[in-house]
Amino acid sequence: MKPDHAKPAKVVVKKYANRRLYDTSGSRYVNLEELAALIRNGTEVQVVDAKSGQDLTRVTLTQIILEDAKEQPSGLPLELLRQLIVASDTVRREFVKSAFDTYSKMSDAVQSGLTEVRSAAFSPLETVSKLVRGVTSPEKRGETEELDELRRRVAELESRTGTEKRRRRRRRSKS
Known about the structure:
Layout: E1 10-15, E2 21-23, E3 28-30, H1 32-40, E4 44-49, H2 57-71, H3 78-86, H4 89-133, H5 138-174
Parallel strand pairs: 1-4
Antiparallel strand pairs: 1-2, 2-3
Helix pairs in contact: 1-2
């Protein structure tokens, strides 16, 4: 049995001139799909040129995205891609940054919405469960006590009203 090792904080991958990728932490050659799987599993990956040490992470991640786009033709619209090529470097960077910021905000909003939906979905179940178990919060206990007091007063008023009605009936019958 192999000892259980924690995932390394960062996997350094060396890219050779022949385009082969070598995972230095796993001491093995990997392909783009395996790199993508590492990234999807939360592993930070850095790709460096084996000879010069130049950071090639951005280029490699872009290549992974492009490979994924080949398999799924529903990528970015062609006209947008053409415009990005025509646009200056600054405009391209600003567009990508803006798109990422928007994606990030939308992702956060979706996560927040899912949390609210989960909480709303489980809220009635929790309420019923608490009622069945008789568990109430201090605020709810105060409300319950107030409700009990109001019920007692209504019952008292009804009994008085009932007593007064009987007295009136007796008076009418005597007259």
